[in-house]
Design the sequence.
């Protein structure tokens, strides 16, 4: 009986990783359809850098078609994440701030007058006392 050995090449591993990152990139755009797809939308920066590395590796191995595909999806991820770094600022500019206060209060050792004074001075929209 002849034994068949399976060989794993570095280019094959990088290509498989690039395909997984590409599929995850596409699935991330369908986050409203299923919770798992929504999870895929949270790792755009990692997809970008992984696909950049896969592109460089594929170019090194002269696999230009795969490199072009990975580069395309790296650019897609870059276009999604770049506004987060250089955008116009946080959403809701010009609106009143929404104030939330969460305090861990120990009745036995805490100072209730200080707590009350802090709450009155801050005037939070939502107050949670633990």
Sequence:
């Amino acid at each position: 009986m002849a034994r068949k050995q399976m060989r794993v090449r570095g280019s094959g591993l990088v290509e498989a990783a690039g395909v997984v990152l590409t599929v995850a990139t596409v699935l991330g755009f369908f986050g409203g359809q299923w919770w798992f797809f929504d999870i895929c939308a949270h790792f755009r920066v990692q997809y970008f850098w992984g696909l950049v590395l896969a592109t460089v590796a594929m170019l090194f191995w002269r696999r230009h078609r795969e490199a072009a595909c990975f580069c395309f999806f790296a650019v897609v991820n870059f276009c999604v994440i770049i506004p987060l770094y250089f955008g116009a600022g946080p959403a809701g500019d010009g609106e009143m701030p929404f104030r939330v206060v969460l305090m861990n209060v120990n009745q036995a050792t805490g100072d209730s007058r200080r707590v009350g004074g802090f709450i009155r001075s801050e005037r939070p929209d939502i107050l949670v006392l633990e």
Remarks:
- DSSP finds five helices and two strands in the chain.
- The CA atoms of residues 47 and 78 lie 9 Å apart.
